Amino acid sequence: MSxxxxxxxxxxxxxxxxxxxxxxAEVKQINTRLDQIESRVTQIEARLDQIEARLTQVEARLDQxxxxxxxxxxxxxxxxxxxDRFEGPVLATxxxxxxxxxxxxxxxxxxx
Length: 112
Hints:
Layout: H1 3-111
């Protein structure tokens, strides 16, 4: 083999070695970036787990509130029915009071 050919092969091997070194550096950077991304994803998953736990608590509280509101609604209907029962007698009593007030006024005007 000639010296020129040997030099050419060595230059070629040097270029390949340099390219492999650059490739390793790029792969190392990519791996570092992937590790960072994996770390962030892990953090995001942890935060999502916390949010999910909090939402579960909120759902439980909403279920309790829903139960309580249903009870209040039933009680409100019951009180409404009771008030409806009293409405008629109260109006009749009011009419009687108005009538008695008129009679008292008439009697007082006759006495005066």
